[in-house]
Amino acid sequence: MNKDMVTIKSLRTRRDRFVLEVNQFSVPPGQVIGVVGPNGAGKTTLLEIIAGLRRVDAGQIEVFGRDPWAHPTFVRSSLGFMSDDLPVFDMRIGALLQVVSGYYPTWDTRLVDRLLAQFDLDPTQKAQKLSKGQGTRLRILLALAFQPQLLVLDEPASGLDLAGRRTLLRSVLDVVRDPTRSVLVSSHMLLDVQRIADRLLVLNKGQVVRQGATDALVGEERTLEEALLDWGAAG
Amino acid sequence: MIGLWRHFRSRLSFCMRDPYSLLALSAFGAMSQVLWPSPWGEGVPVALGEPGAITGSIILLLWLWQGTAIPAACARGWRLSGPVPDTPYGHPLPTLPVGPRARVIGVVLVILPFIIAARLVHFALLDGPGWSYLGHSVLGITALLPFLVLWASPSAGLQLQFVKTLTAVAVLAAAGAAGFLSGTVRFATTTSLMTLGALFLVGRRFRIPSLIRRHWHPIRVLTRPGLAGDRRFRTDRLSLVFKRLGWIIVVLLIVQAGCVVVDQFSSLPRFSVYICSSLVIAELVALVALRPFGSKMLANGLMSVRSARTQDMMKAWSLLPIRREAIVRTIYFHAFITTGCAIGIAFLVIGYYGFLRSGEFSLVDWDGDTVAWLLVPLGSFVPLVAGAVTCSAVGDTPWAGLSLGAIIALPAVNIGGVLMLKSAGQPRWIATVIVIGITLLVTIPPLRHLRLDRRQYDTALQPTP
Q: Is residue A207 a part of any domain in this protein?
């Protein structure tokens, strides 16, 4: 039995002229992995592949021991994916939560109530009428609500105010308090990533520039932003 | 005035350069020949104190109401990234220094030359001066203006656009019943006042009260029992649309039944009741078939090519633990079955009104010939709507557009073909064969989206030992 939640070997995928190549990558349980890099580096593509939303052209990817594209039902039962671009159903928040909750036996009602209060979301509001920040909060709530084993967050902090970001960071740290659960997060909020990530995966133009423990890669004297500039992965 | 002129000029130049807009507006102008007196026939008479004038007006205006969907063509080229506007007539680029009334008048002025050109061409073909034809042309345009203004002014939602224009139909019908349309001066005065009223309303925000919805849909429980993804999906695909839209469907069916009852016991013009029935059926199709799972993402997607390309419906479902092909198949069969049911109701309604006219359930035209051939496109709508909806859901924009085009074009192809063949003494089934052929050509390719993607299962990895 493979202990790593995600295992990638010689992955290659092409989208128009963009090619993403990841030779070796894994997500062990109980860790926060930060995926960083400039715009167009391939962060979203990689996270979508892991969530089973995009298929690969070559190589191997396993999430919980199975190909996420071939076994979406199995993988997504334990994987929460959040992206700002992804649409949500055009319903009131309460109705939306009711519909989505039916798909997860692990749905945590108490957590949902707590997050609704923390994120200041009204269940009678229509999902399509929410502001950008509120929409982000709702998507994060949906990804967290069923207590996924692997939480994949693509730019979760964009559009969030300070209170929202604090709640998000606290929720992420709550997840990895359970040693069987992990978080994979891509963000341009480099200070936040540096604070919470145990390991980093640095991408640039579809190639892995660096990967390893955050402390070892960044060091104590510089920030992640400075490190990215040094590695030529700042855009 | 400068803003109005700039807006008019930019819209007109875009429409003249865009083949779709040019075709759509030319067709709209040419259609006026059918609606009020033309060189080739009486058309539907504009109400001028003639017998049956009120019925004629209602038919005319309902036709115009449908025809005024053309301003959508005037919004082409403006759709940018970002959320889908409230309505297809929503103001694009709201930051432009052009006032709301100037925008509306600009759009209306783009449409009018096409009508005037079509009328003038036919005026030139008339034998003799044909001053009454010119007079009817002017009056027809004055009747058209309030509807064009109302359609071109954006609302908080598509439903409100329908409510606004239908209210104008009711106002004009009431004016006709009260005698305000009998006589040229009265007719022109009434319609002009309505146009001014419509212009006065531009930019004012109205909302359909949501009291009923709140009362009917209290959100008390935010969860339901969690099941395995596929198992939950099996129940949701049957029940979710009725859970979310059930009461609207019930109201529409009550309206439909009311039409039948009213028709039995009142002296209302029969054709207006028939039109009401048709609208209810159209609303049922739009409401249910285009909203699988009770979500209007697909209906939004079909409003513009760009929205269809975003595959919002599939993306929204893709995060839940469900197989992709299960979602696509559900969307297809949902659209297929609901459209089939709606078309079935339409057949029954048409049969019923045919029965009232002839005493038999056989459907015949004014010459006593069967009109069954004319109904073939209704049957074609079932796979066409299902294909359009599915292609829109999966982002197959070309076939979604082609299917929608076929839905719009087939009735014209069929009716035109049947009438031409009838006048030429040829068998009318030839037109039906053509329609079926086009339907098959357009409806078979979308079925590929329903196939199980075998490759993904062949390449599925075994758990690592």
A: yes
Domain with A219 in it: 6-88+148-231
Tell me what pLDDT residue B64 has.
58
Give the mean pLDDT of A162-168: 85
B453 to chain A: nearest residue by CA?
Answer: A70
Rounded CA-CA distance A47/B453 in Å is 22
- Nearest chain A Cα to B236, which residue? A99
Q: Which residues, numbered 183 to 212 in chain A, qualify as contacts with chain B under a Cβ-Cβ cut-off of 8 Å?
A: none
Which of A172, A216, A144 has its CA nearest to residue A31?
A172
Contact call for A109 and B229, based on CB within 8 A:
no
Residue numbers in B near A71 (CB within 8 A): 460
pLDDT at A28 over 90: yes
Q: In this structure, is residue A105 part of a structural domain?
A: no
Domain with residue A206: its CATH number is 3.40.50.300
Quote the ipTM score.
0.80
The distance of B398 to chain A (nearest Cα, Å) reads: 19
Q: Is A74 on the interface with B (CB under 8 A)?
A: yes
**pLDDT tens for each residue of B33-80:** 766 665 555 544 554 445 444 455 555 555 555 555 555 545 544 443
Q: How far is A156 from chain B (nearest CA, A)?
A: 16
pLDDT in tens, B149-167: 887 777 766 667 777 877 8
Query: Does A73 contact B229 at a Cβ distance shorter than 8 Å?
Result: yes
Where are the domains positioned within chain B? Answer: 2-201, 231-452
